[in-house]
Amino acid sequence: FVRGFAGNDWEGVFAEFSDQIRAHVGEHGHGLVVRSFSTTDIVARAATEVTLMDAFRSYFDYDVVTLCGIPEITLEGTPEDWHSVREGAAALAEYDLHWWTQHLLPILDQFIAASEGDVDRSFWHNFYKMDDNSGGPYITGYVVNLFPYLVAAPPTPRIAREQVNRLQERFLLSLEGAWARFDEMMNGRGKPSRNQYLGWEPPTSSFAGITSGFLPPALSVAPFTWQYLNVKLPMEFVAGFVGVAQNPETLALRPEIGWGVRERHRAV
After folding, report:
1. b/e for 106-128, b at 16 or more Cβ within 10 A?
2. Helix (H) or strand (E) holding 220
3. Domain ranges of the chain
4. Fewer CB within 10 Å: N-end or C-end of the chain?
5. Across the strands, what pairs with 127?
6. Among 257, 259, 178, residue whose Cα is nearest residue 212
7. pLDDT digit string (tens) for 75-133?
8. What is the DSSP letter of 91?
9. HEC per residue, 169-181
10. pLDDT tens across 165-210, in order?
11. Strand partners, 261
C-alpha cells in the first residue's frame, strides 16, 4: 500500500480485520453486526465491516504495516518468446559459460511456466528478496542469478552495519550515476568479475547480499569514426536500458530501452 494512492485495496483490509474479529468472537457475535442483504454491495459491506471494527475497538488494536518491496511482477511476452530466450541462453554454455547457465536456466524455466499460466508463487515471492523479506538495500532473491558478472566485489554476508548507509546511496543510483559507472567500465576501471553469489544460500538477515550498485549497467557501446567533411570525429553508438518509466495510475515500473550517439573522448 502506498500513502495517498487511490488504488490501495482498503476494502480488502476491512474484510481481513473482519475475519480476524470473527475468529475471536465467533460467528454469532460477528453476525450481529455484519449481515448481508439483497441490496448489499461492496461499498455497503465495507461500511458494515468498519462498523464492526468500531464496535470492538475497545478489545482490539488494529495495525496496518507497509514495508518496502516489490508487490507484484508483470511478465510480458508469449510462451514462444520465453522458449526462444531459454534456447539462446542454453547455447551460451558452449562458450565457457556453463558456470552461469546452470543457475540461469532453472529461472528461465519458471518464466516459461508462468507465461503458460503455471505460476509458482513461492518462486516469485523469492524473486527479488528471499522469504519476501523487507529492509536494507540488498538483493537476495533469484534475480541475482541473472547476472554472470558484477562490477565490483560484493559485500560479504558479515558486512558491518555502519556500511549500510553508504550502500543505500548506491541503491538509488540516478541515470547520471549509471552513465558514470558505464564510463568507468569502458576505461578499464570497475572491471566486472564473476558473480560469486550465483546459486548462493542467503542468510536470514536482510543486511547481506549485493546492491544495485554492483550490477553492471545494461548498456552496449559501438565506437565509430564519423568522417564529417574534412574532420574525423571519434564517436560511439550507445544503446540498452537507459532508465525506468512509471505508470501514473498503478505506480508500476518498467525498464526503458533507448539509444544515443555521443562523442568519444577516451581510448577504447
Report:
1. ebbebbbebbeeeeeeebbbbbb
2. strand 219-228
3. 1-66, 79-209, 218-268
4. C
5. none
6. 178
7. 999 999 999 999 999 999 999 999 999 999 999 999 999 999 999 999 998 998 887 77
8. H
9. HHHCCCHHHHHHH
10. 444 444 444 444 554 554 554 444 456 788 988 988 766 566 677 8
11. 237
